[in-house]
Amino acid sequence: MIRTERIVIVGAGLGALYAALELAPRPVLMISPEALGDGASSAWAQGGVAAAMAASDSPEAHAADTVSAGAGTVDADVAAMVTRVARDHILDLTSLGTPFDRDAEGGYVMSREAAHSAARVVRVQGDQAGRQILETLIAALRATPSAQVIEGALATRLETDGDRVTGVWIASSRAPSGEVLIEAPAVLLAGGGSGGLYAHTTNPPRIRGQVIGMAARAGAQMADPEFVQFHPTSFDIGEDPAPLATEALRGEGATLINRHGTRFMLDVHPDAELAPRDIVARAIFAETQAGNRPMLDTRAALGAEVLTQFPSVAETCARAGIDPVNAPIPVAVAAHYHMGGIAADQAGRSSLRNLWVCGEASSTGLHGANRLASNGLLEALVYARNAAADIATTVPLAEAAPVPVAFPEGGQDPDPEAVAELRRTMTDHVGVRRTAEGLETALRTIARLEAAHADDPSFLNMTATATLIAAAALAREESRGGHWRDDFPDPNPAMAHRTLLHLSEALALRMSVLNEAQ
Ligand code: SIN
Asked: Is the peptide bond prior to 25 cis by the omega test (within 30 degrees of 0)?
């Protein structure tokens, strides 16, 4: 056990880095599973950050689009707060050195993405926003003496005393063998979402709901776990994780066609390819299921410019032997973003004392049942700052020496076969289209896998989050945003509210499913 006055930040993506900088000169200890900059979902974000930067746009219009995309469950006060401060965060990232794309007059170049009423997404070198913003923040962090980073470590459990978090257990992220308890005055969870719990995902390999599960197991309140966003256009080239073909391509006019050459979105929604993401995702899923091979066609809209304007997309095409200038890109739906997570108030506080949360691990009420594109990075920035400010009012400024951590040698990663079965189960039964029967099958499988690996805290964090998603999806007997039930295809106005629950309630529902089967 190690006692420190440092504030522990679990994670190393956008929210974690920004919070560490905001907290300076307060000493922080960041727990990063990979080398800094690797393995964070935010580094893979292609679109950018949504913010009303244009004179013709307004935070009110951005908030209205956020509420409308969220399908009836967005917290309007949260949407108003986040969109109001978006501009300040872009200006601050700019002054830190983020090389946002600019036009000839020096204005920000804006991408258009689905369900935005204006081109409103600030971008970097086309599709490089996540990586470039992260590199800017890492450079700033390296010059911040108050920040200590432990690379190659994974948080496995929270230590609690009643409803107060007193520390975090960590282990080596490579073949964890033994855990070390770090006792700290405050813990900020900024460790990403749950996409990797699914077999088809755009998230980095390590992002598998562990942080959400860890907080759930410690008794924190959860919100909206059933709402998972599936991205319509991941590359269908057999890679795990599936590379993203950013929605900004459709914003530039790229179309969706199937193997017959039919532009199928025209019959689905008046906004066609720029319909809300859940609608496009279900349409692509239906084409895949029907054997119609959906594809993203950038040829007419972008021609050879796709190669220079979208370098990540061009690089993936080159790797897969696709020439996007002359041929459409095969696409499929993939788990992309978890709207649900650890319930957080506007200061980023969880229901447990001394525990704050920001970014995809949190559920703030901003996204409702369907996140508006590029609101994810924005939410991470806003709540990292809010949480840092709140922590600073709670935790007195103190000196803290660097924390020495050494892990025992040896150990094992979670059983790869169990992880693979869990991921397949989530994709097959808790994915784009859900039924009571499938969700019950999933809950039984999750319970079996959990019982067989009860001594592996990392795996238990994954099964906790999987249980929350499947149980809340079973309880929500309607379709709304990213949550679609074949057996309840309509929205139920009486259910136009957020889900708030604890893991104990999800486990009780799982137990009743197990009992019914006997
Ligand atoms: C994309 O670029 O399509 C993804 C943006 C997002 O998920 O916010």
From this structure: yes
Fold of 416-517: Methane Monooxygenase Hydroxylase; Chain G, domain 1 (1.20.58)
Alpha helices in 364-500 (DSSP H): 375-394, 416-429, 436-452, 457-475
Coil vs helix vs strand at 122: strand
- Indicate which residue of 277, 349, 434, 510 is catalytic: 277
Determine the pLDDT at residue 468. 98
Residues 343-400: tens digit of each pLDDT: 999 999 999 999 999 999 999 999 999 999 999 999 999 999 999 999 999 999 999 9
Position 344 scores a pLDDT of 98
CA atoms within 13 A on the CB side of 197: 35
Residue 39, pLDDT above cutoff 80: no
Residue with the smallest CA separation from ligand 1 atom 4 is 47
Q: How far is CA 386 from CA 66, 103, 288, in A?
A: 20, 31, 42
Is it the case that residue 405 has pLDDT exceeding 90?
no
Q: Is the separation of the CB atoms in 433 and 288 below 8 Å?
A: no
Q: Is 360 in the pocket of ligand 1 (CB under 6 A)?
A: no
What digits encode the pLDDT tens for the residues 144-165? 999 999 999 999 999 999 999 9
Instruction: Write the residue with the smallest CA distance to atom 5 of ligand 1.
Output: 47
Determine whether 102 is an active site residue.
Answer: no
Q: Ligand 1 centroid to 347 CA: how many Å?
A: 25
Q: Which of 49, 122, 231 to mutate to test the pocket of ligand 1 (most atoms within 8 A of CB)?
A: 231
pLDDT digits (tens, 9 = 90+) for 294-317: 999 999 999 999 999 999 999 999
Rounded to 10 degrees, what is the CA torsion of 269, 272, 278, 281? 120
Q: How confident is the model at residue 174 (pLDDT cuts 50, 70, 90)?
A: confident
Structural fold of domain 232-333:
Flavocytochrome C3; Chain A, domain 1 (3.90.700)
List of E strands, 200-252? 222-223, 228-235
How much distance in Å is there from the Cα of 167 to the middle of ligand 1?
34
Please work out whether the CB of residue 376 comes within 6 Å of at least one atom of ligand 1: yes
Rounded to the nearest angstrom, the distance between the alpha carbon of 246 and the centre of ligand 1 is 6
The domain ranges of the chain are 232-333, 416-517
* 248 close to ligand 1 (CB < 6 Angstrom): yes
C-beta of 210 in contact with ligand 1 (< 6 A):
no
Over residues 407-462, the pLDDT tens digits come to 877 777 889 999 999 999 999 999 999 999 999 999 999 999 999 999 999 999 99
